[in-house]
Each structure stands twice: as structure tokens, then as C-alpha cells.
Amino acid sequence: MNELFSTNFSSDELLWERFKNGDRLAFEQIISVHYASLFRFGSRYSKDTGLIEDCLHDMFVYLWERRLHISGTDSIKKYLLKSFRHKILLELQRTQRRGWVDEDEAVDMSPDQNFEDFFVFIETEQLSAKKIKTLIDLLPQRQQEALHLRYYEELDIEHIAQVMSINRQSVSNHLHKALNFLREHW
């Protein structure tokens, strides 16, 4: 497996496991690392800072209380962003305060859906992510590297070409072949 994939996730996985095992310092570290970016993310949906803070508080309390029942993750940031997005949209829908909510995004949530149901959804997504990771491991190293730089580091083709010391067309070819393989084997 490409080292880029294994080293990026090990610290998140370990921190998450410590948190799940009741390590309060690990939980506090998760909060301190991610709180500001979650708050900024929440401000895309509402200008009400009190609402954003309440949703963050409720989400973190829920996570702490349910830590024994949630699945592992290789990306704490992704897990928290998805959870928080759902929490804030649910709260906006419940209170009829639309703020900055994109109506198309709000429609995809059922009013009957609760926060716990969403964690089941996230765990299902985690299984899909593991399947994708397994398929990525089957790719040649250069294709893995190109995928990682494009989708995890969010670099454009030009920057990927510079990092990998290849031309833009080669980057495009690596990405195209990798994505075709993933589609075929999904």
C-alpha cells in the first residue's frame, strides 16, 4: 500500500479509538482541533451564532454519551463535518429558521429523521469508505498517489503533476484509469 494513505490516517484512527475508550483528553483534543472549522462550516447554514454553538455542543455531548456505540473512522474531520451538517440542518428544519440553508440540501432530510438515525447512516458510509479503501489498495502506486493528491489533498492537475514530477496528461491518465477501475469494481 502507498505510504501516503497509511500515514495520513493512523493518528486520526488512534485518537478516535482513545476517545471511544473514554479518554477525556483525546475527546478534548478532538474538540479543540475541530471546533473552529466546524463553527465556520456552520456559519454557512445560519448567521445565528447561538444556534451554531448549541448544535456543536449537542453534537459533542451526543458523541461522548454514545462513544461506545459509534464506529471507528479514519478521518475525524469528515465524520464531524457530516455529523454537524446533519445536526444543524435538522435543528434549522425543526425550528423553521432557514438562515443560509440551501433549500435543495434541506429537502433531502426527512423531518422524522433523528440524530441517532443519522449516526447509523454515517456508519453505513464508513463501510463504503472501507470498501473504497480496499479497492484503492489494489491500484498501482502511481494511481493511488494521484487519487490521494486529487481527492484527499484537493490539488489541481497542475499541482499534482509538479508533486509527482510528471506531465499533466500523465496525471489525467492515472486519474482516469483509477476512477474507471473503481467504477468497474464497485
Automatic annotation (TrEMBL):
InterPro entries: RNA_pol_sigma-70-like (IPR039425), RNA_pol_sigma-70_dom (IPR014284), RNA_pol_sigma70_r4_t2 (IPR013249), RNA_pol_sigma_r2 (IPR013325), RNA_pol_sigma_r3/r4-like (IPR013324), WH-like_DNA-bd_sf (IPR036388). The keyword Metal-binding does not apply. GO terms for biological process: DNA-templated transcription initiation. Residues 131-181 form the RNA polymerase sigma factor 70 region 4 type domain. GO terms for molecular function: DNA binding; sigma factor activity. SUPFAM superfamilies: Sigma2 domain of RNA polymerase sigma factors, Sigma3 and sigma4 domains of RNA polymerase sigma factors. Keywords: Sigma factor, Transcription, Transcription regulation. The keyword Transcription applies. This is Sigma-70 family RNA polymerase sigma factor. It comes from Spirosoma aureum.
